[in-house]
Write a structure and sequence with these properties.
Radius of gyration: 16 Å
Largest sheet: 5 strands, parallel
Strand content: 5-15%
Shape: globular
Strand order of the largest sheet: 2-3-1-4-5
Order of helices and strands: EHEHHHHEHEHHEH
Length: 198
């Protein structure tokens, strides 16, 4: 199979962002993560901080999930909540980036936007709790006594956003083609495996 797109979801602290960026550097294939938010912000004149608030709010409502999925399927955002509009805008940004050619996508339910694109590989990156805790202390500057709490809070938020917009569980192995354990493989090992897809 010739891979055109890799859509990565990851646990907080698993090194998923580092893996995606290294993969991009080593292959020359662009990686879009925060760039998705930046495009939505530029296109709609909404500060990134506001977009992030909408994303967090979207995770807390089951009715939002049903409503957003129905509106997203129709492609009509006229009556959609602000949270739904942000999701649709992110999906449109992902599709626009994908039109440029091969790409790596990080988060933002990218696999949902690319579901009709052939040759898309859906990847989940996980890690062992202690390794993730040490990474977020070392790399993200999180206080040691707040590391676990932060890790679980952000994973819960990501899981909620993913479920709200796809009706699938964030950590459901059936949602992915490939699951990598960065604790066992290391970031370089994960990059090496993902490079083979391209």
């Amino acid at each position: 199979m010739k891979c055109s797109y890799i859509a990565i979801e990851r646990e907080y602290g698993s090194g998923g962002t580092e893996i995606a960026r290294k993969l991009s550097e080593e292959t020359g294939i662009p990686c879009f993560g925060r760039e998705i938010l930046e495009k939505v912000s530029a296109d709609y004149g909404i500060p990134i901080s506001q977009i992030e608030k909408y994303e967090e709010k979207a995770t807390s409502s089951f009715l939002y999930t049903l409503y957003c999925l129905a509106r997203a399927q129709s492609g009509d955002d006229d009556l959609t909540s602000n949270e739904g509009k942000i999701f649709l805008a992110e999906q449109a940004a992902i599709k626009a980036f994908a039109e440029r050619g091969r790409a790596i996508f990080l988060g933002h339910c990218a696999a949902e936007a690319l579901k009709d694109k052939p040759n898309t590989v859906k990847v989940f990156i996980r890690g062992e709790d202690e390794d993730k805790r040490l990474r977020i202390i070392r790399d993200y500057g999180i206080d040691e006594d707040r590391a676990y709490e932060t890790m679980h809070h952000i994973d819960k938020r990501r899981a909620g956003y993913y479920y709200a917009n796809t009706a699938n569980r964030f950590d459901d192995i059936n949602s992915y083609d490939l699951i990598l354990n960065s604790s066992a493989l290391g970031t370089d090992g994960c990059v090496k495996i993902l490079k083979t897809l391209f």
